[in-house]
Design brief:
This is Translation elongation factor EF1B, gamma chain. The protein has 253 residues and is mainly alpha-helical. It has eleven helices and four strands; from the N terminus they run βαβαββααααααααα. Among the domains are: 74 residues, 3-Layer(aba) Sandwich (Glutaredoxin), CATH 3.40.30.10; 99 residues, Glutathione S-transferase Yfyf (Class Pi), Chain A, domain 2 (Up-down Bundle), CATH 1.20.1050.10. It is globular and about 45 Å long.
């Protein structure tokens, strides 16, 4: 049985698997007619990954999900593969940078990019925190690459100017034949993409926008009296108690 990779077209996590396969000389077939949002919700796919996420690799011994695990499987399929180093220390360092890339770079790029694409609620403070964390990570990587011989939507030339060694390394990698075969020509963003309407929180946004627009207009005058009204409500709450005797008058009759 050939190795079959299930993933949507242009999936960034599938790219790492396919590039690793090119370097390792491992043949991988792409699942035919895969449609994200449809194919990954079928009972057959859920059996391979209960979460329904991609990519998933079908192997003779069973399915594997999580892109880094798949890339490791592909890399280790070739004995003495230099991609995994020649010593325990080199192996550990490779694993170190895989985890670093995932948790410090990929994660923060996603926090910055996806809300702008409309996948999630856009919050400026969250974006600022993501950019700050990303710069911190790229700064660390830039220092590391200074003595050693990422980008379409938000990583502009201006942004990357702070990290020249990272940028140099990036372009060196994407222009290698095995990268180019999978990615094609990589172009850098000229400017950060604009913020798109949220695809998940459209209704809450409209609801939250409609209320403040209507209430201030209709209750501008009342708002000034609200504190008094609220105070009256709190004070008048006990007043019905002394009025109870009025209700008792009929009983007195």
């Amino acid at each position: 049985m050939a190795l079959v990779l299930h993933a949507g077209e242009g999936n960034k996590n599938a790219f790492k698997v396919l590039i690793a396969a090119e370097y390792s000389g491992v043949q991988i077939e792409l699942a035919q007619n895969f449609e994200m949002g449809v194919s990954n919700k079928t009972p057959e796919f859920i059996k391979m990954n209960p979460i329904g996420k991609v990519p998933v690799l079908e192997t003779p011994d069973g399915p594997i999900f999580e892109s880094n695990a798949i890339a490791r499987y592909v890399t280790c399929s070739k004995s003495d593969n230099p991609l995994y180093g020649s010593s325990l220390m080199e192996y550990a360092l490779i694993e170190q940078w895989i985890d670093f890339s995932l948790m410090e770079i990929d994660k923060n790029i996603s926090r910055w990019l996806y809300p702008r694409l409309g996948y999630g609620l856009y919050l400026p403070p969250v974006e600022e925190a993501a950019i700050s964390a990303l710069k911190r990570a790229l700064g660390a990587l830039n220092t590391h690459l200074a003595s050693k011989t990422l980008f379409c939507y938000v990583m502009t030339k201006t942004f990357m100017a702070e990290f020249p060694h990272v940028e140099r390394y990036f372009w060196t990698m994407v222009n290698q034949p095995n990268f180019y075969k999978i990615l094609g020509e990589v172009k850098q963003a000229e400017k950060v993409i604009p913020i798109a309407p949220s695809k998940k929180f459209v209704q809450p946004k409209e609801a939250s926008k409609s209320k403040p627009k209507e209430e201030p207009k209709k209750e501008v005058k009342k708002e000034a009296e609200k504190p008094k009204a609220e105070a009256v409500e709190e004070e008048e709450a006990p007043k019905p108690k002394p009025k109870n005797p009025l209700d008792l008058l009929p009983q007195a009759r």
